[in-house]
Design a protein that fits this description.
Helix content: under 10%
Radius of gyration: 28 Å
Strand order of the largest sheet: 11-17-16-13-14
Order of helices and strands: HHEEEEEEEEEEEEEEEEE
Mean pLDDT: 86
Structural class: mainly beta
Oligomer: single chain
Length: 230
């Protein structure tokens, strides 16, 4: 009868598990998996920086800062520059990283300064990164394609190893942001030659068409296309 059914605790008591030295509470607890240990807090660091002009004056609301892995790949994270000219990234894993400033048509990092900027993050520490910019449009504004380990990617929103569309006469710059040497091989330019870390290759399209290219060191992983239109 339903009213005569024993609970699980009563059943264990009846068959004498307690008398045999087995703790009912611990037995029931073990069936539930026991008490869970609290998860260890993640060990991370923080990144803070200021965007300023050459004179060192902070520039409010100027562009966005993109956080990239050491390989040059985009993390998908970016931070706006705030009213004080500052930007922040929290919860950044310890290790080597890069950041990229982006304010097209408004300001840019001068060619004499490193860009993207490499830095390291330590656990439970704040890393400070300074970015100096100039206002205006670069003398030779161009499409920038990052060459990384193991990808080509138009900056800042292009997909990896896919197509970049440019117009006839617009400069294209492939820039090695990775840790390994790469090449840009194919198309009318034929070959960039070996691009060491931070080296770049520029081509100004002089014909329309769809041109496939690859890295000769990593031909199976690094394949992309440049489409030139009028």
């Amino acid at each position: 009868m339903p009213g005569d059914q024993l609970t699980r605790r009563e059943f264990l008591r009846v068959i004498g598990w307690s008398a045999a030295g087995v703790s009912i509470a611990s037995t029931i607890g073990s069936c539930r998996g026991g008490a869970e240990s609290p998860a260890a807090p993640a060990v991370v660091g923080r990144v803070r920086g200021v965007v300023s002009d050459r004179a060192g004056m902070p520039q409010p609301f100027l562009g966005r800062i993109f956080l990239m892995y050491n390989s040059g790949q985009q993390t998908g994270r970016y931070a706006p520059v705030d009213p004080a000219g500052a930007f922040h990234f929290g919860d950044v894993a310890p290790g080597d990283w890069q950041i990229r400033f982006d304010a097209p048509g408004v300001a840019y990092v001068p060619e004499t300064m490193p860009h993207p900027i490499r830095f390291s993050v330590s656990a439970n520490q704040e890393t400070v990164v300074q970015i100096r910019v100039e206002f205006g449009v670069e003398d030779d504004a161009m499409h920038e394609i990052y060459v990384g380990d193991y990808f080509f990617q138009e900056q800042p929103f292009g997909k990896e190893n896919t197509e970049t569309v440019v117009k006839l006469g617009e400069s294209v710059c492939w820039y090695n942001v990775g840790l390994q040497p790469h090449t840009v091989t194919g198309g009318p330019w034929v070959d960039s030659g070996k691009l060491e870390r931070t080296a770049n290759f520029v081509w100004v399209p002089d014909r329309v068409g769809v041109f496939g290219y690859r890295c000769s060191f990593h031909p199976n992983q690094m394949l992309a296309t440049l489409r030139v239109t009028v």
